Amino acid sequence: QVQLVESGGGLVQPGGSLRLSCAASGSIYSIYSMGWYRQEPGKQRELVATKTVGGSTNLAEAVKGRFTISRDNAKNTVHLRMNNVMPEDTGVYYCNVLLDYPGGFREVWGQGTLVTVSS
Prior knowledge:
Elements lengths: L1 E6 L2 E3 L5 E9 L4 E9 L6 E7 L4 E3 L7 E6 L4 E6 L8 E11 L2 E6 L3 E5 L2
Parallel strand pairs: 2-11
Antiparallel strand pairs: 1-3, 3-8, 4-5, 4-9, 5-6, 7-8, 9-10, 9-11
């Protein structure tokens, strides 16, 4: 079993900053990528940012220049620095980990942390 613990969500004013963190623990063989997805009520979960073990980053167009994703491979943690947040950044942010096993990949999700951008 692999567990993900997320932290850092909350209420932030437009233009402000927030940092989300996610730590993976448990029976981890190898992690290929870690990242964040956002989901708004009634909508599909969408990618915000992911980073592979090799350092390749994938950022949603809407957050480029504002959000930064970083990983600590040794500690199995991933962070999302959110700067200049906007109301449309509001949603539940889910940590996503893609585990790399000899038999293939397995995806694990965190429980989600709510981010509300409002004045």
